[in-house]
Amino acid sequence: MSREIERGEEGRSNGAGLGAGGLGAEGRLAxxxxxxxxxxAGERSAGAGLGAMGLGAEGGSAFAGLGAGERFAGAGLAxxxxxxxxxxxxxxxxxxxxxxxxxxxxxxxxxxxxxxxxLDVATGxxxxxDSWEVDGEVDGEVDGEGEGSxxxxxxxxxVGTTDxxxxxxxxxxxxxxxxxxxxxxxNAKKYSNNLxxxxxxxxxxxxxxxxxxxxVLFQELYFDPWCEEVEVDPAMEFVCNDYSAERAxxxxxxxGDEYHIACAAGHRDNCVGVRRSFGxxxxxxxxxxxxxxxxxxxxxxxxxxxxxxxxxAVRVMGGPVIHVVNAHVVSGMSxxxxxxxxxxxxxxFVDRGDGVPAANGRYNIVGGDMNTDPFLMADGDPSxxxxxxxxxxxxxxxxxxxxxxxGPPTLSSLFHIDHIISDSATGSCVVAxxxxxxxxxxxTSYWDHRPVICDVExxxxxxxx
Length: 465
Description:
- With 465 residues, the chain is an alpha+beta fold.
- The chain has a single domain, classed as Deoxyribonuclease I, Chain A (4-Layer Sandwich), CATH 3.60.10.10.
- The protein has helices at 169-172, 181-191, 198-211, 250-255, 335-349, 382-390; strands at residues 96-97, 104-105, 107-110, 116-119, 126-127, 132-133, 137-140, 147-158, 215-219, 259-264, 267-275, 279-281, 295-296, 309-316, 321-328, 364-369, 398-399, 418-422, 425-431, 452-461.
């Protein structure tokens, strides 16, 4: 686990945490086992999404979309856990995820005889059996009720590291990744355990380019202007070695130009990316990174600074507005830590600081590093008990990621602290490097967290925005 460092309003922290997911509503099974399941990455074309009663922004006729392909997760073994790693230690983050396949949507249009024919979306010509793949598919209803189902992918990943891992073990076996305890000490001392090792950044960039995730939640990125205060070691390949004020920031390097990006002004290492072909971030739709686009407040009592819990409103192309909450709550198991973490959870579900919860939309998705395992730690952690009052079967929010301790862990092969939940969407997830058949971002001892990648379905009515 890692130390936590508050740096002015930015509150840069370092990471260890817990998380995974479970049974979604509507009887959709997510993870029921450890290290199992998986959904293929699949290519998704750069479509603009389909409106409830038309084809994207281009207009068109009413249509009914036929569902996306089958998704699955796996079943496996529950893991007995010992909690001694957490005693007296501060930590700050975890991540894991599930990949989405390229789903096929067939569009129907009634002909003069009252029958249905298939419409070739790409050309507008009528054809027998054509289909189209899009980013974030919206299936509309033919009857004009303005309802539909939206299929898309979401990932949360705490990309930071820790100097508490056995970084030299693989080197001693002759299987080293090049990241040693000396690198870990440098990353902790100069880079606050944020994502700073360039081989790890490049590997994550490749995964994101392959997966083409529609909504990405990051915690513990590196904010490049911090490099102006760093004295680099040229013998180690860290993010500040080639820094210049003109270089694109890390979050843009990771996601590329195909994403709208918003970050928290007081926690510039916590950002949300939305694929342009999927939707827009309200108030943040230019080419630049929107550095105050994640809306949030410090918790009541001021136990931490800045927006550790922040919201963006994502207006889906041709679809509804989804409120996405990116959470990176405080870590640690002292009485003060747990009380502060409970304050962060109160911001998500009750009052973020302006009289409304962070999850304040008609359709809400919450993801991030919750820094407690609600399945394994509720007996000793009041914040986990508070979380469990709001999340679970029959509660206001349900898990999209795995919903019990049998799901794949997201922190150091032990804990479930990174989660994706919703009050309206369902789906299934994988944890890269833990779910069967799903490779880690990079075979390295660098990350203590794992990314959670979820394939999500949202049923919506266009009158509910």
